[in-house]
Structures are given as C-alpha cells and as structure tokens.
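Hi F.,

I've been meaning to write this up properly since the lab meeting, where we talked about keeping a consistent format for the predictions we share between groups. The idea is simple: the sequence comes first, exactly as it goes in, then the structure tokens exactly as they come out, then a line or two of notes. No screenshots and no reformatting. I'm using this chain as the first example so we have something concrete to point to.
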Amino acid sequence: MTSRKPRGSGRRNRTPKTGRRGGPFSGADYDRNLGPVDRSQYRRKGKGQGKKSRQHVPQGERLQKVIAAAGIASRRVAEDLITEGRVEVNDDVVTALGTRVDPENDIIFVDGIRVNTKPKTVYYAFNKPRGVISTMSDPKGRPSIADYVRTTETRLFHVGRLDNETEGLLLLTNDGDLANRLSHPRYEIPKTYLAQVKGPLRKGVGDELREGIELEEDGLVSVDSFSVVDSTPGHVLCEIVIHSGQNRVVRRLMKAVGYPVERLVRVAHGPITLGDQRQGSIRQLNSQEVGHLMAAVGL
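Output, unedited:
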C-alpha cells in the first residue's frame, strides 16, 4: 500500500510548525513506543472477541510461533517472553514453551498488549487535509479518502469522520469490531483537537465548556478538558479534549461561547497521536498502538 501525494501539496498545505521545534500543531512523535498496557486502567467495557478455550490446544499452533507471526518478536524472543511470565492466554499467564493455541479463538496478550492473531486486519492513521470528504467515495467527484488510499485488496472503514473543513487524524481499518467500539459513545474514547480562534479569550470560557453548553438537538454537551496552548496578536490556539461524537461538535461549542473556529485539527484519537505525520499521508499503526487501541475499548 502506498499513499498518494495530496492535491496542491507544498509548504502552505503542511501542518504549521510554530516555533520551529515541532510547534503546537505538530504534537508528540507518532509511531512511538507506547510501552506495556496496564489493563487495570481501563474499565471493563466489553468481553472482547472470540471465546474462552483451554490454554493448550493439542492441534493448535505453538504459542511462540503465533506471537512471532503477529510481528511482536522473533520466535527466540517470544520463547523468552513466555518463560518470563509476560504472556497471557485467555487471562491466564502461560509459561510452558510447549503450549499450543487456537489463533482464531484464543485471546493472547504480551505485556498487556493484545496480540493481533488475524493477519488480514490492518490499521492505519491518515492525516486528512482540509477539503477532503470523510468517505471512501463521493458521487459528486469531490476529493475523498479514496484519493489517498492505494489498495484493491482491502476494504477500509474510517473510524468516525471529520467535516470537510477539519484537518487531522482519521483512523482507517478493516476491523469492524474495533471501528464500531471506537465510534460508540459507550466507550468514551477521547479525541484531542487544536482550535485556532480570534483572541483574546475572555475569562471563564474554559469553565463554561467544561460545565457544558446547551446545543440544539444534542442537549447539554461538555468538554473533558480545555486549555490555551499558544497565542499571537489577535489569535489564540486552544487544546480541546472531548469524547462526544456529535456532528461538528467542537465548532458548534466554540461558536456557542462566542469564538467561531478559524482552523481545527484533530491531533489525537485515544492513544494514537498525529505528531509530525505529513498532511495527506497514511501510515500503518504498529502493534503497540493497535494493542493500546484495543485495550481502550475492552478488547
């Protein structure tokens, strides 16, 4: 799979990097080592997928082979992980190297990170440019996600959507279960945005947003957090974290408090960050990023 160079690419279409050292729009490095998953930090919001089975399936595959096939580690390192007690199968720690498992039904974790035992599932991060429609096709011929995806074998779903004018992180996958959970309000997955508005801000705007604003048709909607991260004469850059998924909710909230958004960029979706990923590009998530996403929705 390759990504297509975005229309009109050039310096003015790149995510701005105020301050020359990444800047407020660039955030943290992407594709980073997220470390082990502490699953106790996540509320049990679902039972996961697959069904429980015995920790040894005589006709199954060797556990270390399954771990290696998932790209977690080589077979030799996978054997060390098993003997060190860092591998769980169906919530039980397994230390025997002769253990065989059923990749289709057994649920395997390494250091708390869910092992993807379904090699045909793929997970991508797309940095959506302004003016691109959040759909895999558009009958009106407008720029869409499909213009940036080069694959004929895999049908991808976009997790949620960004309106035409909003830029930034959009997750793409063919894992329908994960996509549905990430989009479902039950799991309260936070999304982080940077919003540029006209300044200065009056005192108390953050408190108003955290307490909640009445929006037509949606009722009382509040943000998880609000902070000012940068300011220039006449403009303010705000970081907004919200788990609500209503249509254009950040724009509507900011307009309701008297500060219409001039520019809006989603920089994080749950544990996945946009970082310095080039606008219009698509990158594959690493196994740790996928594991943290799964943990966030109870998989």
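Notes:
The longest strand covers residues 191-198.
The radius of gyration is 21 Å.

If this format works for you, I'll send the rest the same way.

G.
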